Amino acid sequence: MDRAEQKTTKPHRIDWRLSLRTKWTLIVAGTMVLFFAIFAGVLYQSVAQILLSREQGSVQDTLTAVEQRLAPLKGEVTMNSVNPLLNPNYINADTDSLPIPKQQTNFFSDSLIAKLSREDITVSVYDLHGGLVFTTRSPEAKYTSRTAEGFQYTRSDGGKHLIATRQVHSATTNDHIGTAIVYDRMDTFNASMQRLLWQIVLIGILVFVLIVIVALVLMNKLIKPIRQMTETMTVVHDDPNTDVRVPALKGNDELSQLVGEFNGMLDTIQRYIKQQQRFVQDVSHELRTPVAVLEGHLQLLNRWGKDDPQVLSESLGASLQELDRMKHLIQEMLDLTRADNAATTYPNAVTLVLPVLKTVYNNTVMLHGDFQIEKDFDLAPDTAIQMYRNHFEQVLIILLDNAMKYSRNRKEIHLSAATDQSTVSIVVQDFGRGIAPKDLPQIFNRFYRADEARSDMDVSGNGLGLSIAHRLVTEYGGDITVESVVDHGSVFRIDLPLYKGELPPEEAAEAKDDHDDDDELPPGIIKMS
Questions:
Q1: Which PANTHER family would you find in this protein's record (predicted)?
Q2: Torsion angle of the four alpha carbons 293, 298, 300, 306, in this order, in degrees rounded to the nearest 10
Q3: For residue 482, what pLDDT is reported?
Q4: Within a domain: residue 296?
Q5: What integer pLDDT is reported at residue 525 of this predicted model?
Q6: Burial grade of 260 (CB within 10 A; 0-12, 13-18, 19 or more)
Q7: In terms of pTM, does the model score above 0.85?
């Protein structure tokens, strides 16, 4: 049993994921350190080249001085002929013994002797057979027949050394009389380069620490809005209707724009949530009455309708009327819900204003012959707005229907349109009962109807028309206002942004054809060509 439990138990996994702040810090620090390393490497090599050139020049001068000292000799170099020229303090000894220069604490006035006195330089002179005839100290570079003339770098004891070889020729006979070798341990160069390397390493460590600190500070500043977004999302997840938002950032960079878009997205999501909640509440509230009426008539039919044809007829008629009212109510509520997203559903829609006005005007005149409808369209044929055609037509129908619905004895409506440099204005005026001042602020609220309208049985409706019109107009960036005087009528005005771009092909062709239309003909009469 224990073995089975051990097999089914999954081993605990360590989460090796790095935070975004740590990743960005490492990336920034690593990049900066890489750049510093490249810069330090270039600097190190440049300094090395400069110091090497100096060392090589010094060795070159030493070889030249030795060659110039030995050039007067006519024959092969020997100890007796070389030592007096290169070391004035040379003491004669047996010809078989090697010359041993006396070391002095002071420097000779001769420039060559000053060069030979350097502790890290050894100057050796060999005869034609490879025999050592002179050296400033124990030779560190052995001469062979294969020793090439020129400069050669070697490495030993953790440092870099320079060996320079040159053949010495007699100035009199121009014959090869010997070979001079200069061995430069380059102690100063090696010490300087090692000191520079340590300085670069220490500065690199300091730079890395500073970069990490600065990167952490910057990353904290950059990550702070993201952290606040995460915290805000957590709060919104727990309470979708919360008003908590990410604090706005100063400046106009990408993070501030991201915060703005994030807060806007939360506002949109909450608006949709509220719309859904309000839709459910409105449906449950508005459908309660017709459902209760249907229920009452069905109970009435169940009790007496089977035996009483009059009760049966009245109940069926009332039920059908309530069903029709429910159908219109649901359709209007769906229209209102769609109106909340109209601009995002048709973001590129362009509509010519004049053809829609003419269509709605002609249809209204044909359907309501008892009304006198006056029109005044002071618009160019190519006047357009960025709005879906059906939505624009729906707004006009709602306003005209509302004007006719609340008209009394004077059945007259004025429909006019004009434009300025940036706006298209459409006005619908009626001469009906008007709207009380206390009702004006609320007429665009859904399901709102003034007390007079509720008491008037001849005025049908659910109080959604003006709300739908208001939502459609505002969704497309427009504005709808109303002025009204009780018993004298109302004036509804729509202001929509004028479309100033290039018309789509279909709208451009329709605007061109509209130049040939005769606006003075009666509605329904087509001009014959």
A1: SENSOR HISTIDINE KINASE ARSS, SENSOR HISTIDINE KINASE CPXA
A2: 150
A3: 92
A4: yes
A5: 45
A6: middle
A7: no
Q: Give the range of the structural domain holding residue 370, as residue numbers without chain letter.
A: 346-514
Please give the pLDDT value at position 340.
65
The C-alpha atoms of residue 351 and residue 426 are separated, in whole angstroms, by: 14
DSSP type of residue 498: B
Residues 136 and 39 in one domain: yes
Number of domains in the chain: 4
Residue in this structure with the two tokens 């952490």, named with its chain if needed? 216
DSSP-derived 3-state class of residue 133: strand
- Written as one string, the DSSP assignment of 23-71 is HHHHHHHHHHHHHHHHHHHHHHHHHHHHHHHHHHHHHHHHHHHHHHHHT
Assess whether 311 and 268 both reside in one domain. Answer: no
Could you give the residue ranges of the DSSP H alpha helices within 240-346?
A: 254-286, 288-300, 309-339, 342-345
List, in sequence order, every residue forming a beta bridge with 412; answer none if it has no partner: 372
Mean pLDDT by 10 residues, the chain (529 residues): 47 61 82 89 92 89 87 88 75 42 40 74 87 81 69 83 89 89 88 90 89 84 80 81 78 77 82 72 67 75 72 75 73 67 76 90 86 90 89 88 85 92 93 85 72 48 75 89 89 92 82 60 44
Residues 483 and 398 in one domain: yes
* Residue tagged 């006198």 (tokens): 372
Are 66 and 127 a contacting pair, CB within 8 Å?
A: no
Query: Amino acid identity, residue 344?
Result: T
Biggest CA-to-CA distance, the chain: 162
